[in-house]
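Ticket closed. Logging final result for AAA family ATPase.
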Amino acid sequence: MRLAAVFIPEGVLKYIFGENHKGYTLNLGGKYNYEYTEKNGLPIKTNQVLNTDFLDNFWGEDLLLVSALVGANGTGKSSVLNLFRNNSFCYFIYENLKSDEIEVYNNTELINDVIYYTPFLNIENHNSVNGNFKDISKYELMLEDTENESIGLSAQLELHNSENLKRWIKFRQITGIETFLRDIKLPIFDSVKIKLNYISITEHDTPNNFRPFFKKFKEIKESENNRRFEELRVSHPNRREFRVNRNFGNSIRLEFLILERVIDKVQNVLESSGNKYLNEGYIRGNKNSNSPEFTEISDLKEAFYWFIENAFIQLSEDSEKILFPVQEIKLLTDLLLVNIPKDNEIENWAELNVSLDATQDIFNAYEKFIISFKDDFSFDRKILLTFIPDKNLSSGEKGMYDLFSSLHDYQFKVEENILEEYNMYSRRKEHNNNYLLLLDEAEMGFHPQWKKRFINSILKLFPFIFPQKKIQILFTTHDPLTLSDIPKSNVIFLDRSPTSNLTYVLNETEKAKKRTFGANIHDLLADSFFLQDGFMGEFAEELIIDLVNYLTFKEEDGERGLKNIKEWDEIKAEKVIAIIDEPLIKERLQSLFYKKFRYNEKELLRLKIQELNIQLTKLENEKN
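Final structure:
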């Protein structure tokens, strides 16, 4: 079944179309265009006309239809998409793919699984869903990524960024995906850089009994570092190799840096908890940093592990001991250490370069590490690890990875039957084979080149992400580059009345005058639907008009008796004219400038004749 139209009865969207608005039938570009009305609470078809622009399999074998909802900001595009989210009192007209039969439903639940995506944080519609509607917007993913943990914003963002890159990696590891990524010119990353961030320590609120240990860690590190480098020199009698190879010993440096950063992070968690534990820190057996059990340790990792295993906080003799999350600290530290490459492979010993598989393990350990402090300590906002793909990606390329990986993650969870639903009304026993994808300004913020590629990219990758599914796409946009890939019969135009300021839907007659598919970008922009009052930026336009007034009229009057906005003089006027790149405007301003400051009209005319004679001579010479 193909969703061909949506009927919005009279008065359903009052906050968009106004009180007692007429009913609207939104045609999506199916085989027929429809008109509906409502009588006695039931939808009545009043017209059905063949869509002469419709082509079967135009988008691909499993891509049933691609439609666009277009309008300026504030016309209600997102509100129209919300009709699919809950009980909207609208009607959905479906066409049978093998016949001319149609079916009308008051929801999409029997036919479609509806997936909503937007890259924006939008909390207005959280949890407002039907059973067949899945929201994978930025806000919903942040909630899922943090598993609704009651942690601070900094920690939430850290967890979300970690989970987001995990989705990227899972998408990147699809068998055969490289061919598709190359086809759409999306950069392919093969590994991940893990940057170890510097964490400054003020040491105001670390428990007094713990401070000597953190001081000893620095001494142990210095001693062990010197010892191991000396052993390295002895094991390489060829001193020239030691001097020439600039990567020599980098694995040792990176190992100590990992340990230092983890130790600093743990201490900073204590600092962030305030002075409530200042005198409540203890070591099992009343030991201290001078106890033989500790002083005999010459290995930094071993010394740190001894400390977190034996240290505890106790507010009173009768209270429970607060322990460090030893397992989580060790797991993260050991995973980072085991992924240290050999010397020759380390260019920058302030970061790790690890495979996609290893990154997944480190991600999981890092998330457990972050959450493990939340119950008994205040979470430290300083970020220990930053994960970066080994390819530099633009914001548009990151946006494409976000879109594709989020959709792939959804499909993976459906196939594995692990899709988590926090709303009891959205839980389902089975899923439909027809997917309706709602993309709400998914290309916003993209570079124009990526906006140009957007539709082609999703057409190629969506069937790969959703194998054996029938896919229909409805997206919102107000970008002409994206719209130039969509036939106008598949476009719903929303506009705003200049008198009532209410939104209305363009009818078929008004729509027929529009140009979309394959249209030149200049033609699209020239349509006042996209851009009013010309192509020039308002700042430049205002400045040029003001300059024309200055060059044309008396300074004290300006055009129509208005004063000039800026203070002009000959030098400033000449410099502004010099930076104008539109040749016709520039020539006109130069003429006005010369008339005001250099020549009289007769002299200007003589110069113009001279310039034209030069051009004429040049053309005659080229002809000969």
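The first strand starts at residue 2 and ends at 8. No further action required.
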